[in-house]
Write a structure and sequence with these properties.
Length: 206
């Protein structure tokens, strides 16, 4: 039976023009197929050459495997604008229906509701987009200045964003904006490091 297997493998190899050496069941018995389905013993191909231990993508010299703040800034700004527009549209619809609840369904009521939706959508999109722009700009500047990327950059950028956005409200406005930015970014950093913190606490308790 083993000889028949080898003869079939050689015949198929000759039919398709492959000049490789055929492998029998005994030859393939000790070949590790980690993460792969068992291959047919009649293929003139060594399965060991199909196992990839290297990275799938080739990065330029000095490039990071993760995106930096500058690359993520465009996604952050665009996402905040779209989120603000969607939230503002829903809020405008709610306000429009509330203000025109005593009116009958007619064209003037529809126009008034539509105006409220577009006004609120533009307002919230502008607000969140401006905050995202300031946050991304501060984040990129702090990252380039410090030469490192960590949660300290996130917290500092959020605090400075809140302070600058509320700077027209005087000292109290700056303080409130800074505290709000510090709180939000602090909670975000805590959420990102929650699993790491739980692992550290578990190791210390052992």
């Amino acid at each position: 039976m083993e000889g028949g297997g080898n003869s079939k493998g050689t015949g198929l190899g000759g039919l398709f023009g492959a000049g490789g050496v055929g492998y029998s069941h005994a030859d393939l018995a000790g070949v590790p197929l980690t993460g792969m389905s068992p291959l047919s013993p009649y293929l003139n191909l060594d399965p060991r050459y199909l196992v990839q231990d290297t990275d799938e993508f080739i990065l330029p010299t000095g490039a990071n495997k993760t995106r930096g703040r500058f690359e993520l800034a465009f996604f952050t700004i665009g996402g905040c604008c779209m989120t603000g527009a969607a939230f503002g549209a829903l809020n405008g619809l709610r306000l429009g229906l509330k203000e025109t609840q005593n009116m009958a369904w007619s064209k003037p009521r529809n126009v008034q509701i539509l105006n409220m939706v577009t006004r609120q959508g533009a307002l919230w999109a502008n607000t969140l987009g401006s905050l995202a722009l300031l946050y991304s700009a501060f984040g990129v500047i702090i990252e380039k200045t410090r030469g490192a990327e960590d949660d300290l950059n996130t917290i500092a950028a959020g605090t400075l964003t809140g302070m600058l956005y509320k700077s027209t409200g005087g000292v109290r406005g700056i303080a409130r904006g800074g505290i709000a930015g510090l709180t939000l970014t602090g909670l975000y950093a805590l959420y990102n490091n929650w699993e790491h913190m739980k692992g550290s606490i578990a190791r210390q308790s052992l």
